[in-house]
Amino acid sequence: MIIFMVILMGILMVCAIAVTATKSLLNSVLVFMGFSIVMSIIWILFESPDLAITEAAVGAGVTTVLFLATLKRIKAIDLEENLIIEENDQSEIPSWAVAENNEKVEGGASDEL
Amino acid sequence: MGPNLLANYSEAVAFILFVIGFANLLLQKNLIKKIIGLNIMDSGLYLFLAAKGYITGRVAPIVVDGVQSVEAYINPVPSGLVLTGIVVSVSVTAFMLALTVRLYKRYHTLNLDEISMWLNKEGR
Amino acid sequence: MSFKSWINGEEDLLLNNLKTTRREDDHVKPLLTDEEKKSENSKVLNKIYNVEDNRRLKRFDKTYRVVAIVFCVLLAAAMLFTISYLPKVGDPDTPANSSVVSERYIESGLQETGATNIVTGMILTYRAFDTFGETNVLFIATVCVMVLLMLDEKILEKLDKTSDRIYEPDYDPILTLAAKVLCPIILLFGIYIVLNGQLSPGGGFSGGAILGAAMILYNAAMGFGKTQRFFNENIYKVAKITALCMYGLIGTYFYITGANGIDNMIPLGTVGAILSGGIILPIDIAVGIEVACTMYAFYALFRRGGL
Q1: Domain definitions of chain C by residue range
Q2: DSSP state, B70?
Q3: Phi, psi for residue C305 in degrees, rounded to 5
Q4: How many Cβ pairs within 8 Å bridge chains A and C?
Q5: Mutation site for A-interface testing, chosen from C164, C196, C216 by largest number of A Cβ within 10 Å
Q6: Chain A interface mutation, best of B17, B31, B45, highest count of A Cβ atoms under 10 Å
Q7: Is C295 within 8 Å of chain A by CB?
Q8: First-to-last C-alpha distance (Å) of chain A
Q9: Which CATH number goes with the domain that contains B98?
Q10: What is the pLDDT of residues A67-90, one digit of tens each?
């Protein structure tokens, strides 16, 4: 049992360092999900099944979904910008402003993901 | 150094996790990675609390067959504290992610340095 | 006049009938003309090629990193040093484990709360006030996320179904079939965990999170149109506020009648039955509804900007 515990603790630390080291945000979110699942096994070894259920549902489930939704939202941000611009009077905006905005969005989002 | 470092390896791991998360907070420039670092800090603290309440050879605090002696079960107090903490940490995470989305909407970047540069430029 | 309009958010009673209006969006249009832009550019170029300034910045960055790393290493060393003097993990005689509080919870928890799961019995009766505060934290967090991310209904109507924000999936056979098979099972499991909280591991928080996860899965597979048939904004408001008020009322009643030891209206029941545990079951249901609503609301707000 102690060996199993030590192995799990090792995986925990490797996951925590991997989150720091990975370049891609998607990868680090997925590694963090693995971290939560290992954590929920450790709760069972510590005789706290309540915590294991909660960690598996909240840490591995809902938190990861929230992170992924944020990544999706950040990548899809240009749709909303275009919508706002359509809503206002388009003729007032100089052409270079619109172009610059789009450039910025593409450059920013594709680098991060 | 005291005598109990090897026996307390789970507490040691808990605080190493805490420090890794804290280093993430200090050194990362990306806001989402900072939030993940804060979550890792949370996990480290919960691990420390659970290790404090664990007692070797005893079972989870669920009464079976009417046995109610203290010698049979682990300490239930840390479990209760951590249970509330996990649920609060998810709501804090959601709040920080919402703030991140707003910042991205306005400045089109997740890098904290660039955001503070824009803030400087706007004169705030 | 004003109470109804205050409820609707049109007027503020406290601020001397200040009319509240919708704030202008902060999607600021760039207001610079071409000349201003040029002068701005030259300023930026001057700043970029200022060697002295750059050197200073670089030095600051390096110092910051070194100081941060050294601080973290020192912190880790200090903590490990402290841990080596702490009592061993698993030792029954530590001050934390031999305190009177946990002894009392284990020895007389079953008689006083009627719950076989001591953890649930502890956080929902002895520490009910604490848990009430935490449920309020969930409520406030949802409100804050709503303030930050909720979109106007006008904008929501303008988004057509192909846009990424309000993506209604086409018939995707694998995802749809998996959701159809899995959702009822996950919902049933969540309800079981909520109702069985006083007997087995689980309770309001874990069961509520599982219920919320099932609703998120259904939403991801079927889209917002189908989910809104059984869970829309009005149902969300009613469910969440009812659950919070129910918890508050039951908790207040419990504390007014003496918290324990005195007979109150809700009997403890036979140990081991579903309908046992006194106030634990109704509070569990309230907390479960609250957590499920919160989890689903977070997802819906992040994904779409509305419920």
Answers
A1: 34-83, 117-303
A2: G
A3: 90, 15
A4: 75
A5: C164
A6: B17
A7: yes
A8: 40
A9: 1.10.287.3510
A10: 988 888 787 444 444 444 444 444
Instruction: Give me C203's structure tokens.
Output: 């309770």
Q: What is the pLDDT of residues C221-234, one digit of tens each?
A: 888 888 888 888 89
How many Cα neighbours within 13 Å face the side chain of B89? 26
How many Å is the Cα radius of gyration of chain A? Answer: 21
ipTM of the complex: 0.88
Residue B2 resides in a domain? no
Domain ranges of chain A: 2-73, 77-112
Residues 6+ apart with CB under 8 A from B9: A6, A9
Contacts A87 to C, Cβ<8 Å = 155, 158
Partners of A53 on chain B (C-beta within 8 Å) are: none
For A3, A69, B86, C109, the CA distances from A9, given in Å and listed in that order, are: 10, 29, 19, 33
Domain with B112, as residue range(s), is: 9-122
DSSP C163-205: SSTT------HHHHHHHHHHHHHHHHHHHHHHHTTTTSS--HH
pTM, rounded to two decimals = 0.82
Q: Report the domain count for chain B.
A: 1
**A9, A43 Cβ separation under 8 angstroms:** no
Quote the CA–CA distance of C173 and A68 in Å, as a whole number: 23
Length of chain B: 124
